[in-house]
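yo

u said u wanted the structure for the complex thing, so here. seqs first:
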Amino acid sequence: MVAAMARLDDTASLAAAEAQISRDAARRLDIAFRGGAGIFSILVLLIAWEIFARSGKVTAFMLPPFSAVAERIYADAIGGELWRNLWVTMFRAITGFAIAAVGGIALGAVMARSRIVRWFFDPIISVGFPMPKIAFLPIIILWLGLYDVSKISIVVFDAIFPVVTATLAGLAGVEKELIWSGRNMGASERELMWQVALPAALPQILTGLQVALPIALIVAIIAEMAMGGYGLGGAMMSASRFADSRGVFAGIVEIAIVGYALIKAMALIRRRLLVWHQETAERH
Amino acid sequence: MRATLSYLPLVLLAVAWEAIARLNLVDSSALPPLSKVGLAWVDLIRGGELVNNGAASLYRGSVGLLLAVLGGGGLGLCMARWRLLDVFVNPLVELFYPLPKSALIPVTVLWLGFGDGSKILLIFLGCMIPVTIGAYNGARGSDHALVWSARSMGANRLRMMWDVVVPSALPELLNGIRTALALAFILLVSSELIVSQQGFGYLIGYLGSTGSYEGMYAVVLTVAFLGFAADRIYQLFIQWLLRWRD
Amino acid sequence: MDGQSQIIIERVNHTYRPPRGRPVLALSDVSLDVRPREFLALLGPSGCGKSTLLYLVGGFLPTETGRIVVKGKPVTAPGPDRGIVFQHFALFPWKSVRANILYGLERQRMPRAERERRAQAFIDLVGLSGFEDSYPSQLSGGMKQRTAIARTLAFDPDILLMDEPFGALDAQTRALMQTELLNIWKRTPKTVIFVTHDVQEAVYLAERVAVMSARPGRIKAIIETKFDDRDPGLTRSKEFVEKVDELWNLVREEAIKAQSIKAQENQEKKPSS
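structre next:
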């Protein structure tokens, strides 16, 4: 039964593992983007795709040429379908992410301050974080139906865990001298939380958000695939059901672009918010 | 004793669940009592559904993850040592990292159908990148002094890879695998939920659509527990493997 | 109320309780009086509890046994009458130099124009003009510590608690900062308790040096170190060198004891981990 002995530390280390991967990927994304290497490699990939698809080694069903896929995306964009799906997916993913962000930071902050709240949520967080929460999707559908509420709920349910652990770890890591300085200058407990502890924990909280964002996207798309309806995931799934391989590949390209843009935006926000931080100073 | 006390909240949740369901505070199909879920679990084990479907899922998950670890780990280590490979492959890693991996589900179905192959491919593709990044970073961070001293002692490239680079890359590589493990569960369950005729995810969907919600809850909790237990066991494995560190 | 002692420390014990392992007696029966506007150094080997004593006076740690009285009132909590400067600066990294200094003034509810003026005055005092809008991460160690000192002086505490403030600086910066601190102290005289393990620093800066023993920390001796003129040349004078020598003899044996305590602890730690 050793396996069931979970401490929040164990979960925090999972969070740290995920954060490390995501932070590094975001950093290299940034360098690639700036250096143009990313654009070059995209071009090479697309040309290789086109040549391979036209070589006759694969059928157009298995791999339609990129030009055909691009045509399809263009047609969807003209027809307006693309924008509708894009909007719906972004709305679900970002709303869920935002709720998870605010709720996760708030819960983490309350847990850091109240022993009872901490005692109650500690095992729930440490057992819940490594669970594949997507398995609860059918239960959430059972409770909340097939519409946006249930899709956003499963996104929140999945994305909130890294935010809570990051907030807790960040607040626990605030140097006591910093808190003492604030207290020394006459800050109240409330002011200490808002003006000292949370800003000091911000780098780690942002890292938590950077882990949560891809999770929110992954889950939003799974939820759309499972429940159908509008959205990039739903459109891809129905294309797959009708053996419309161009539609499937159009979906992949669209989702890849959305993922790239969102993660890039998040890295930019981080840099904006952390102008004061060492990591930003080092980069210039 | 302290461990028991710290788990009390979970017990309280379980009791609250039972009470809410028994008192009919919510529709009993939406939330069957925990005790009935437990009975349904026993039935599913006895009937063999849980075991058969579980075996299918575990097979897909472990093969996919194993391929991802071998492929991703090998790729990451080689990228760190051979500059030419680094230049060509690194941008691709960057390109595919932000892709929400669930978008690969319909593509793998298109290529390999509804069976084991598509799930294994999905997990392989989805889980490879975190492993690659972990291995690459770990190997890049390996101490130059160690590499040079191994070379000077006459180790050839392959030997040195195994003796010096792999051990020093290990902590970060293992971190990457841990992330991949969590991702494997997500991709496995969701792909089975969406398109499959076998596996945990399929069983959850099937029981839900036939209205046997106790069974559905039982399978969901089983999968959740397995994901949690896999992470803990893996963590103990890491601790054992890295016991030479302070 | 300008009596003989501004700070009275009476029979204070302090036990440090680590989350794991045995509790450690950090301070044992410490009594010490500090006079108004005195510059007192607390000198001792690392781990002797001198910082703990400082934190107790600051009200950051609760006084368990004995009592600490500041200006006639027992210490119960931190307050802006006792400003503290830490070894690692404890600046708010997300605030500029100016915003760091303003923070304490905002908390004192000082009117806006007044606090802007005051912040600028202290920026000028510590020689940071031109760096008002820099973030701490863009400053050198010496500049960070100047900012921290300005931040604490700005809210005008009667008592300045300094916890090895120059311990993280390189030797040259350290010498410069010592002279500067003396200049500031001459211009705005405050009661200073200055924690250090550097004998020369203690003799150069302080009027009195309280030497502490290795753990558990006790006051081993209190030595007067008054000199007529404290310019940097003082450190080469015969009387200064003799004072340093006298104190060094007192500290040395404690430092050796402290090392063996530490080695013993590491031994104890090993089998369990």
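Residues 46-245 of chain B form a domain with the MetI-like fold fold (CATH 1.10.3720.10). Chain B has a mean pLDDT of 86.
cya
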